[in-house]
Design a protein that fits this description.
73 residues, alpha+beta, two-stranded antiparallel ribbon, 3 helices, 2 strands, 48% helix, 19% strand
């Protein structure tokens, strides 16, 4: 399975799970969706989260802007 497929599948599963919750704010932000649609950012996330799994804060550089993600599992 390719790296793109793994990230896309994880995102789809998370999105499907999140739709079961009733919240006022979206659980997957528009900014996160935009980042996951950026190929470089997607590969950087894959490299930092999947290749080197650890809990905590992960910083990804997207088009010159640093974006922080909290990884819990």
């Amino acid at each position: 399975m390719s790296k793109d497929n793994i990230i896309n599948n994880l995102f789809r599963v998370a999105s499907n799970m999140f739709t079961q919750f009733n919240t006022e704010e979206p659980l997957v932000s528009d900014e996160t969706k935009e980042i996951l649609n950026n190929e470089k950012a997607k590969h950087e996330l894959y490299k930092k989260i999947i290749d080197n799994p650890k809990s905590g804060e992960v910083t990804v550089n997207v088009e010159g802007k640093e974006v922080k993600f909290l990884v819990e599992a």
